[in-house]
Amino acid sequence: MSANTFSFHYSKHHQAYVTNLNGLIEGKPLADASLEEIIRESAGKPDMAGVFNNAAQVWNHTFFWHSMKPNGGGKPTGAIAAKIDSDLGGYDAFVKDFKTAATTQFGSGWAWLAVKDGKLAILKTGNADLPMVHGATALLTCDVWEHAYYLDYQNRRPDFVQAYIDHLINWDFANENLAKAA
């Protein structure tokens, strides 16, 4: 991911969600709530769609930044590696299924490695949707909104997803989240 893409994505898109959310909850009961509380309180409520969308996008993007690290990617180590082997059929199967989830998400959204019902699962969500409102715990995510990759990859989402898998995944972060989910 180029510095230009990261800067544009973080300082424009992510910041817009933060600014919008702050404006929507200012002076209201949710103003002092945690981001997770705001998301859970607003999920599925049409009259709070703007609050949910902005809160979830702040959470999703913050999680995405932590899901990456310089010189990341490649095969995982530790507990996450063992869970990928036992629950998903190994690293190669994970790569295939995660890439499929990310590249077949119609329109904007996210690909996730998550824990659901005690087992690893690969999920995809559209727009601002996220695993926590579906009873799952996110371990890592890849942003597949066009703003995440278009400056570097234009319409080549599969190439961006492969670069994310090969060079950016922060397996340490995934292991930390797995430990908390247990």
Automatic annotation (TrEMBL):
Residues 2-69 form the Manganese/iron superoxide dismutase N-terminal domain. GO terms for molecular function: metal ion binding; superoxide dismutase activity. Keywords: Iron, Metal-binding, Oxidoreductase. Mn(2+) binds at H9, H61, D143, H147. It comes from the Bacteria. It catalyses: 2 superoxide + 2 H(+) = H2O2 + O2. Residues 76-176 form the Manganese/iron superoxide dismutase C-terminal domain. Its EC number is 1.15.1.1. InterPro entries: Mn/Fe_SOD, Mn/Fe_SOD_BS, Mn/Fe_SOD_C, Mn/Fe_SOD_N, Mn/Fe_SOD_N_sf, SOD_C_sf. It is an enzyme of class 1 (oxidoreductase). It holds the Pfam family Sod_Fe_C. Belongs to the iron/manganese superoxide dismutase family. Destroys radicals which are normally produced within the cells and which are toxic to biological systems. PANTHER family: SUPEROXIDE DISMUTASE, SUPEROXIDE DISMUTASE [FE] 2, CHLOROPLASTIC. This is Superoxide dismutase. It comes from Hankyongella ginsenosidimutans.
